[in-house]
Amino acid sequence: MASREPGPEAARDHLDVAALARFMVANVDGFAGPLNVVPFTGGQSNPTFRLTAGNRNYVLRKKPEGELLPSAHAVDREYRVMAALAATGVPVPQMLAFCGDGAVIGTPFYIMECVEGRIFWDPTLPGLTPIERRAHFDELNRVIAALHSIDYAAIGLDDFGRHGHYVARQVARWSKQYAAAGIEPIPAMDRLLEWLPAHVPSDDETTIVHGDYRVDNVIFHPTEPRVLAVLDWELATLGHPLSDFAYHVMAWRLKPSEFRGIAGNDLRALGIPSEQDYVEDYCRRTGRNSVPDFEFYLIFSMFRIAAILHGVLARARHGTAASQDAVDTGSRARLVADVAWTLAQRSG
Fold first, then answer.
1. Quick count: other Cβ atoms within 10 Å of Cβ 33?
2. Which secondary-structure segment (H or E) carries 51?
3. Residue 102 domain boundaries
4. Does residue 63 fall inside a structural domain?
């Protein structure tokens, strides 16, 4: 297991700590300096920092600097959705302050509570017993089912995204993002650009979707199989829940060498539920009899993460990536796209 730990490099080269401290004095209840700022390691998107003042810890997330892809790195939307979810059964960190003024530290940012717990970077959850693994996966299933069951209008998110036709719009969006990256194309992605629009399912429904729900985007309790906080809501919107769930389940179809998958492992020995069992648990929790067109949603999810990874590689090439291993991570776009195209060919 691993946790998001502060990196060794000094954040003072990236942030105006004095300006940030002034902002926090004015906007964060109970804050008192002096302020220490250290960047977290891990992640590929919005730069994230641990803030320490006295005996209190906070977390800051900001937009990256430099030229960015259209609509990416929406820290304002992250802040809004987590603030709205605070009163629901979906665990999120407490939001403390948002700053849309890029003049304060260079780009817009928000500050939230620092939730202490465990983050598993390896989805096979090494170090746990089979019984513990099953309980942790059951909790992951419970939380995403709870998210998809929320009345989004009741918590003020009726205008958080467009209603209906989410998948068709997402195919168009990520096709544009992929093209906008401006680096070498991926043959499988180019084929999926044609295949996906022709196979979009006709069924439609709308819920809140996280957009990047994975085991390494949640914080578990230090000792219990209980999620304390779901992180990284940058891609959250109103959308189709089966698309969101399939993105989570694609780990069962991808190998660790492709992108944070569990395919190829002895799941029974590990205590990890099979894909079929995991999907059935989600259906039970959300009142579904089945998940129609699930293969399409899996293929689309792989296309989408491949487009995201392609963007990571582009940022690395342009010098704006948030992570030191962005080139290696971004290069996996081709591997994921190849798996997606193979599934598409089998699906007809």
1. 14
2. strand 48-53
3. 11-113
4. yes
Degrees to nearest 5, angle at CA 325 with 321 and 329: 90
Q: What is the 8-class DSSP label of residue 251?
A: G
Burial of 180 (0-12, 13-18, 19+ CB in 10 A): middle
We report the CATH number of the domain holding residue 44 as 3.30.200.20
Q: Which two tokens stand for residue 178?
A: 């992929």
Distance from C-alpha of 203 to C-alpha of 151, rounded to nearest angstrom = 20
Half-sphere exposure of 148 (CA within 13 A, CB side): 26
Are the beta carbons of 49 and 13 closer than 8 angstroms?
A: no
- What tens digit of pLDDT does each residue of 17-39 get? 999 999 999 999 999 989 999 99
Are 139 and 104 part of one and the same domain? no
Decide: 221 and 136 in contact? Cβ < 8 Å.
no
With the C-alpha atoms ordered 151, 154, 155, 158, is the resulting torsion angle positive or negative? positive
Report the C-alpha gap between 161 and 84 in whole angstroms.
14
Alpha-carbon span 198 to 200, nearest angstrom: 6
Cα 312 to chain centroid, rounded: 14
d(CA 214, CA 303): 16
Share of the chain above pLDDT 90, in %: 75
Distance CA(180)–CA(58), nearest Å, equals 35
Specify whether 184 is located in the same domain as 38. no
The verdict on residue 100 lying in a domain is yes
**Structural domain count of the chain:** 2
User: Following DSSP, what letter does each residue of 121-149 receive, concatenated?
Assistant: SSTT-TTS-HHHHHHHHHHHHHHHHHHHT
> How far is 322 from 91, CA to CA, in rounded Å?
26
CB 5 within 8 A of CB 59: no
CB 82 within 8 A of CB 95: yes
Structure tokens at 290: 């089945």
Per-residue pLDDT reduced to its tens digit, 151-183: 999 999 999 999 999 999 999 999 998 988 888
Q: In sequence order, what are the beta bridge partners of 6?
A: 40
